[in-house]
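Progress note, sequence design subtask.
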């Protein structure tokens, strides 16, 4: 029994958010998403999207905040992330909740991998939500 030939592509995104104010900014919401197979391909178990970053999000239930970056200074800068809880299911959309101290910056990263049979053709479509 030979293993099926697969191909994969990894995508990584980094954002640096700076607070140039002299006061802390709390509860900034930054929305992000990972791609999901289209409805006609959702039942094809050979197509996989594996979320690698942010750490801990893939195991979290929708709406549950996961701490990604703890406060490193007295200013209280932090980054948390959660699945958007629109229907109670993980729909690929998530949001960062950021607290940024005066004059500080917070870096957030997301990374995912798409795996599919080597003969499968895919395209990523960007949509705003």
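Output:
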């Amino acid at each position: 029994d030979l293993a099926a030939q697969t191909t994969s592509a990894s995508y990584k995104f980094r954002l640096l958010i700076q607070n140039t104010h002299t006061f802390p900014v709390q509860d900034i919401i930054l929305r992000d998403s990972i791609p999901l197979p289209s409805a006609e391909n959702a039942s094809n178990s050979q197509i996989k999207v594996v979320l690698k970053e942010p750490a801990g999000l893939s195991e979290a239930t929708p709406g549950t905040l996961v701490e990604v970056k703890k406060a490193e200074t007295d200013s209280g800068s932090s980054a948390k992330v959660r699945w958007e809880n629109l229907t109670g299911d993980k729909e690929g959309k998530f949001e960062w909740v950021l607290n940024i101290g005066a004059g500080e910056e917070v870096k957030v990263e997301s990374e995912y991998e798409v795996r599919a049979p080597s003969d499968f053709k895919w395209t990523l479509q960007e949509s705003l939500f």
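The longest strand covers residues 6-18. Work on this subtask will continue into the next period as scheduled.
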